[in-house]
Amino acid sequence: MREVAEDVFHLSLLPRDAVNAYLVGDVLVDAGYAALAKRVLKAVRGRAVARHVVTHAHVDHGGGSRKVAEALQVPVLAGERDVAAMRTGEMVVDLPGPLEKVVSRYGRFPGVPQTEPLAIGSEVGPGFVVLDTPGHSPGHVSLWRERDGVLICGDVVNTMSLVTTRPGLQEPPAIFTPDVARNRGSVRELAALEPRLVLAGHGPIVRDAAAPLAALAARLPQD
Ligand SMILES: [Zn+2]
């Protein structure tokens, strides 16, 4: 675990930062797959954790949440429209025919029945504000700290290709994004903030992120 901005720690849970979590003050953001929960717990050992926020109810972000919350005895919070999916461990999928079944099965994770809604606009940890950034999931939230331009964006953007692992800002895979057009809107809104540091769910941290994020937003199709 390393400090990447004031009171913001990066937990790289898989090689090449393929799956990330973050500790902001005493708030743990995301918990990776269920199999990675031990790694999360090891990383935060000896640190105060008071709350666990999940950017969105997907297996690779909330999969470890039940174990982590049980071990740390902390409340779990997610964007309001993702609370039901967090409670049941069944992500929202919108795909044609058999593909929907395959992705739904892959996406199943241990539900966290006590998940509570996280209010948009409320403050989390050391100066972060909760932003509503739907599309990749219905209730996807991001965390934004204006004073030093730090953005925790979950999967609104990936900073690596999940296929080749090559770094670079890009859209998340459409197959796991039930509303691609809405997610593009969220990308544009985040780009307008001109963040200095982008901390994504997948891929390395990106410094001087405003220009590459603006470039990504500019080349997205308008739909
Ligand atoms: Zn993800």
The gist of it:
The chain is an alpha/beta fold. The protein has helices at residues 37-43, 59-62, 65-72, 83-88, 97-106, 180-192, 210-219; strands spanning 2-5, 8-12, 20-24, 27-29, 51-54, 76-79, 116-118, 123-124, 128-132, 141-145, 150-154, 158-160, 167-170, 197-200, 206-207. The longest helix has 13 residues, at 180-192.
Give your account of this protein's structure.
This protein is an alpha/beta fold and 223 residues long. The chain has a single domain, classed as Ribonuclease Z/Hydroxyacylglutathione hydrolase-like (Metallo-beta-lactamase, Chain A). 26% of the residues lie in helices and 26% in strands. The chain contains 7 helices and 15 strands. It has helices at residues 37-43, 59-62, 65-72, 83-88, 97-106, 180-192, 210-219, and strands spanning 2-5, 8-12, 20-24, 27-29, 51-54, 76-79, 116-118, 123-124, 128-132, 141-145, 150-154, 158-160, 167-170, 197-200, 206-207. The strands form 3 sheets. A 7-stranded mixed sheet has the order 1-2-3-4-5-6-7, covered by helices on one side. A 6-stranded mixed sheet has the order 8-9-10-11-14-15, with no helix packed on it. α1 (37-43) packs parallel to α3 and α6 (180-192) packs antiparallel against α7 (210-219). The longest helix has 13 residues, at 180-192. The N and C termini lie far apart (39 Å). The model has no long low-confidence stretch (mean pLDDT 97). The structure holds zinc ion. Zinc ion binds at residues 58, 60-61, 155, 201-202. It holds the Pfam family Lactamase_B.
